[in-house]
Specification:
The complex is a heterodimer of chains A (about 300) and B (about 325). Chain A contains 12 helices and no strands. Chain A is mainly α. Chain A has a single domain (about 30-60, about 65-295), classed as MetI-like fold (Orthogonal Bundle), CATH 1.10.3720. Chains A and B meet through helix 1, helix 9 and helix 10 of A and helix 2 and helix 3 of B.
């Protein structure tokens, strides 16, 4: 072994190099698609944060003489909608609601669902049965119906919309997590950690959770996309964001009614939803790869 | 002179096997059945048996990964089964385990450094810097290099991974290590390296091993004493030399006659037991070997033979020896 081991200095260097290579941020930087996703997400987030600075005009300013202008006409970059409101400004302000609701709903649903799934999968037995039957009960309702019930109970508003979308998503997270915990909890390395005297909390959050994080991240990024659509459908039913406040869902719905005369309204708002969803998905895939030590690029 | 560190008294482990039928009673599987032995300080007790005889279950009962159904495990004359979790945590420091499968027994998401450091974090030993130094020290101790500390388990070979396992087990300075077939997943040349490592560490830290294996030559190489298990019971226990020279129990005889002869001119008698191992769900009454034994007597299927001393610390559970 002695002739194979390197001298101390080069060992130090190797240590530093590997520490750098294993650094999560450096790994993410090497992943091009993930960086594209990150750029999209950052742009959308900045847009939401600095809407008043970017938007050329008030999103709610009516101008009935300029109804359904085409993109580019009279200085309106994306044209105007059925009340003559500047579409560009509305999209920019809409990103606030849409992104907050989508990300917030995903986080709320994710945290509750992951915790319930972890407990159900880890404890097993009667606790597992109670939690999972409850989740099955929630699954029995169609997603929209469940959100409608929640929105009616909670009342409208952004906070409640986030809660409603979050809670409606809980069962899917719980189900995914519980299944994964069942697979991982009897792995030998979990036994090894138990034999070392680790507490259940340590085992759950330091060993089991990191090992099941991949499917959760993939699902969560897809879920952001789903939540934007959910917000749109709830707004459509009049339970989400009340007009005239702009959200991408609101704009898309309004655009649906005038697809023949002014297709740009639905197209542009739809495109923004599409790009944001794509951005989150790319970023999520990248993060998953970074967290998996077996993926090396 | 030598004192016993680990003592097992009448240990049994029974698993309930649920039936597929709705209102059927669950069946009882006696994996370990009324086993007693003791391990002396600084020695290696080899536990041999074919697969399914309860060796690993015994090991897991000793380190309290499985709850014992009856009987007791004593460490330094203090009972360690049925302890509450904080008392058990103190004991865990002294009794560690090395698992069979080096591929699944290391968390794939943690670096080697984090894996070896973890036991020290759990037991609140030392400051961050001290722990890091100890990790490096342990890595060297088991024959790995310093720069391995930031690597992940999947970047190592089986033998190296088993060395990491050994390092993790050593991190708490344990007194007793249960080795659950630590080399059976490795190829022969690596087996020898790991066995020698275990032997060296034993000398250096005065460790006591309970070495579980199905590999007769491995056990012969490493053990001071051996216990032979069959269907959850110890049928023979004694000094390794004596047993390898002159096995007493019919099962041990049959087992050792299966070792290939060392020279082609050696005339070795083969003793083959008839039939298959009975299912542990349905144990034969009396001696577990009574259904297959070549020396079957009538009382074998009526009463269970106890382990009896036949001199030289050699104990056999058979009516042939009184």
């Amino acid at each position: 072994m002695s002739n194979r081991s390197l001298d101390l200095k080069s060992q130090e260097e190797m240590l530093k190099k590997e520490r750098k290579a294993n650094n999560a941020w450096n790994k993410l930087k090497r992943n091009k698609t993930a960086m594209i996703g990150l750029v999209i997400v950052v742009i959308m987030t900045l847009m939401a944060l600095f809407s008043p600075l970017i938007a050329p005009s008030d999103p709610n300013e009516l101008s009935l003489s300029e109804v359904h202008l085409k993109p580019g006409e009279k200085g309106h970059i994306f044209g105007t909608d059925e009340y003559g409101r500047d579409l560009f400004s509305r999209i920019i302000y809409g990103s606030r609601i849409s992104i907050i609701v989508a990300v917030g709903g995903t986080i709320v649903g994710g945290i509750i669902g992951i915790l319930l799934g972890l407990i159900a999968g880890f404890k097993g037995g009667i606790v597992d049965s109670i939690i999972m039957r409850l989740m099955d009960g929630m699954f029995a309702f169609p997603f929209v119906l469940l959100s409608i019930v929640l929105m009616t109970v909670l009342g409208s508003g952004t906070k409640n919309l986030i809660l409603a979308i979050g809670i409606a998503n809980v069962p899917s997270y719980a189900r995914i997590v519980r299944g994964q915990v069942h697979v991982v909890k009897n792995e030998e390395y979990c036994n090894a950690v138990r034999a070392l005297g680790a507490s259940d909390n340590r085992l759950l959050f330091s060993h089991i959770l990191p090992n099941i994080i991949s499917p959760i991240i993939v699902y969560a990024t897809l879920n952001v996309a789903g939540a934007i659509i959910s917000e749109a459908s709830l707004s459509f039913l009049g339970l989400g964001i009340k007009p005239p406040t702009a959200s991408w869902g609101n704009i898309l719905r309004a655009g649906k009614d005038c697809l023949n005369t002014a297709p740009h309204v639905a197209t542009i708002s739809g495109l923004f939803i599409l790009i944001t969803v794509l951005g989150f998905n790319l970023l999520g895939d990248g993060i998953r790869d970074v967290l998996d030590p077996k993926m090396k690029r | 002179m030598e004192k016993s560190v680990l003592k097992v008294n009448n240990l049994s482990k029974i698993f309930k096997v649920k039936s597929n039928k709705l209102f059927d009673k669950p069946k009882m599987l006696k994996a370990v059945n009324d086993v007693s032995f003791e391990v002396l300080e600084g020695e290696t007790l080899g536990v041999i048996g074919e697969s399914g005889c309860g060796k690993s279950t015994l090991g897991r009962c000793i380190i309290q990964l499985l709850q014992t159904s009856s009987g007791e495990v004593l460490y330094n004359d203090a009972k360690i089964n049925d302890l509450n979790s904080s008392e058990l945590k103190k004991i865990r420091k002294d009794i560690q385990i090395i698992f069979q499968d080096p591929y699944s027994s290391l968390d794939p998401r943690k670096t080697v450094g984090a894996i070896i450091e973890e036991p020290m974090i759990i037991h609140n030993i030392g400051k961050h810097e001290d722990r890091k130094n100890k990790v490096i020290e342990l890595l060297k101790e088991v024959g790995l290099d310093t720069f391995h500390v930031n690597r992940y388990p999947h970047e190592f070979s089986g033998g190296q991974r088993q060395r990491i396992n050994v390092a993790r087990a050593l991190a708490l300075n344990p007194k007793v290590i249960v080795c659950d077939e630590p080399v059976s997943a490795l190829d022969v040349s690596v087996q020898a390296q790991v066995l020698n490592l275990l032997k060296d560490l034993q000398k250096k830290f005065n460790l006591t091993y309970v070495f579980i294996s199905h590999d007769l030559s491995v056990v012969k190489y490493i053990s001071d004493r051996i216990a032979i298990m069959y269907l959850g019971k110890i049928v023979e226990i004694g000094d390794a030399k004596n047993i390898y020279k002159e096995p007493k129990h019919p099962y041990t005889k049959a087992l050792f006659s299966a070792i290939p002869p060392e020279s082609p001119f050696e005339n070795k008698q083969k003793l083959v037991l008839e039939g298959d191992v009975p299912s542990p769900l349905n144990l034969p009454s009396g001696c577990p070997l009574s259904t297959r034994c070549p020396n079957y007597m009538e009382k074998c299927s009526k009463t269970v033979p106890e382990l009896k001393d036949i001199g030289d610390n050699h104990q056999v559970a058979c009516f042939l020896y009184k």
